[in-house]
Amino acid sequence: xxxxxxxxxxxxxxxxxxxxxxxxxxxxxxxxxxxxxxxxxxxxxxxxxxxxxxxxxxxxxxxxxxxxxxxxxxxxxxxxxxxxxxxxxxxxxxxxxxxxxxxxxxxxxxxxxxxxxxxxxxxxxxxxxxxxxxxxxxxxxxxxxxxxxxxxxxxxxxxxxxxxxxxxxxxxxxxxxxxxxxxxxxxxxxxxxxxxxxxxxxxxxxxxxxxxxxxxxxxxxxxxxxxxxxxxxxxxxxxxxxxxxxxxxxxxxxxxxxxxxxxxxxxxxxxxxxxxxxxxxxxxxxxxxxxxxxxxxxxxxxxxxxxxxxxxxxxxxxxxxxxxxxxxxxxxxxxxxxxxxxxxxxxxxxxxxxxxxxxxxxxxxxxxxxxxxxxxxxxxxxxxxxxxxxxxxxxxxxxxxxxxxxxxxxxxxxxx
Length: 416
Hints:
single chain; globular; eight-stranded mixed β-sheet; alpha/beta; two-stranded antiparallel sheet; Nucleotide-diphossugar_trans
C-alpha cells in the first residue's frame, strides 16, 4: 500500500485501496456520457510484431468507455500499413491509424515544412504531435490518455487510473501524469529518472538557486513516465519537443500554461516494465546517452527562458555538484534494493552516473554554442493561424488512407 503524502506543489493521487478495475471502469463509463474519452498510442511498426502491443490491444479492445483510439504509426511501408489496419481492426472502438510515412501525410508535412511549422526531426515527439492534431480535428474525445506501446506489464487498470483524474467531471484537473515503481524481474530500473533527472534537479537548486519551476519538477515522482492524460483544450497551446526531452518538455509546458492546482500525478501501476534502451557509453547520438543530453538541454533551456544565465564555469560547477549527489543516490538505491530483496549492479550504476555527468557538460556546451536552437514543435494554435484548413486536411488525409488501404471496405474502416 502506498503512502498518502502530499508535497504541496502538485496533487498526488495514490493507490490506497487496490480498487477493482471493474469499479473504476464503471465510473469512467458514466463520466464518458458527459465527457467522451480517448486514447493516443504512438507506435513503431516493429511493436506490432513484439510481445507488448498485441497484449495491450487484446486488453483494451473491449473497454467500453473509450470513444476513440488514435494510433500514430511510424516506420511503415504500404504493406505494413495495410497489416496495421488489420491488426488494429480488432478494436471495437472508433479508431484511426495515422500512416505517418504515407504519401498523404508526407504531403501535408511538406506544406508545413515550407511554412517552417513542421516537426524538425523524426521520433516520438513528431508522432504524438500529429496524433494530437487528429484528436483536435476529429472532436470525438474531450479527455485523452497517452501511453507507450511497449509496456510488458500492461493491464486495464493502468488506463483507467491514468484517465480518471481528467475524466471525472467533479475534478478540475487539466493534466495528469502517471507514476509507478520501475521494478521488474527482481531489479530496480528507471536509471535515467533515478540517476540523472532527480540528482540533476537537486544540483540545479544548489547552483542556480531554488525557484518555483525546479520545486515543481522535483515534485513529480516519475517525471519521465511516458503516460499522461489531458483535457482536449490543453492541446491547442502545447509546444512539445521532438527529441528525447518530450516528457520534460510537456511538464514544462504545463507549468507555463496552468496553475499547479489544475495538475496532478496518479499512481497507475504496482509494477511496470517496458523495452530498455542501451546505455550507449561510446555513442552520444544513441540510447540513454542521447536521451540524457536531450533531457539536460530541456531543463537548461527552460531555466534560461526564466532569466537564468549560464556560463561554461557554471556548467562545470553543475557537473561536479550533480556527480556528488548522484553517487550518494547510488548508495541510497543499493540499500533500498537490499532491503527489498532486489538486485542492483553498483558498477553499472556508477558507469551511468559518470556518463550522465559528462553529458550534462555536453548539453551545456551545446546550449552555449547554439543559443537559438528551437527544438519545440509549434503549438497547434500557431499552425492553425498560419494554415487555417490544416486540421481538416489532416483528418481528410487520415480518412482517405483508411478508406483506400483497408483490406475489405467496411471491415476495418470502422467508420463512425
